Amino acid sequence: MSPEAKKEKKFALTLPAEELMACGHLACQGCGATLAMRYMLKALGQKTVLCIPACCWAVIDGPYPYSSLDVPIYHCAFETAASTATGVKAGLEATGDTETTVVAWAGDGGTFDIGIQALSGAAERNDDIIYVCYDNEAYMNTGIQRSSATPYGAWTTTTPVKHFKNRPKKDIVAILAAHRIPYIATASVSHPEDFVKKMKKAKDIRGTRFFHVYAPCPTGWKSRPEDTIKLARMAVQNGYFPLYEIEDGEKTTVNLKLKERKPVEDFLRLQGRFRHLKPAEVAAVQAEVDARWERLMRSCAG
After folding, report:
1. 20-301 is classed CATH 3.40.50.970
2. Which of 34, 178, 187, 279 is most buried, most CB within 10 Å of its CB?
3. C-alpha span between 176 and 255 (Å, rounded)
4. Is residue 75's pLDDT more than 70?
């Protein structure tokens, strides 16, 4: 192989080149949710329909009749992402279209809280949809209020510094795994190749598929926009947000096993929402992360 060919191979694209998200969207600077959408559409391609409830992405896409996405979007009520996607899929199949992928795309508030009833119903029926929760750990679109995805210790406008959130984050993946759906995956905007690979895998599976995607929010996390990928990567490397898959509610595969996990303190200190935490509270966060990691390792061993 010539030196020129070797250089070309070294810098070859590892993600699909097709772009279905254009410039002109309305996201904040450094928005992790915008990257998540871009990567997902690269994996699924143009034969995709999105059902988007009230969330940041209901605004990011742009005002009607304009859109930054080159796929159809059905905007729906806050609590109805999963049920709307189920209906859209049934309608397409009634017309003979069995190829188009229907995606319910919602934030953590519309998934962990407001939309969990419709999501549970779709999962119990094993409806043929992909549900993606982009998780920025609060109700960011309406002013940074606490959700059940907000982690212990975090500041939000409804959990101020003197009364920060003192409960752990809801384990949404365990809840979906209890439904024994065909496929569940976690993903992070810091690891796009992993995300795209999993989404392509999910595209070829029938039934309910659920993605929990880590998507930092500089506005709500009080972090620098240029630290979005750094924070997402740190969360993976310290075990705060591990990357794994669960198939049929049983088989768990960790996609990135860590021989030595980094401590969470540096990750927390980069975010203003955690800056008030004292050493004992940081230690409590570390203990929770350690316990979750050990449970995940045991589930793989079993």
Report:
1. yes
2. 187
3. 19
4. yes
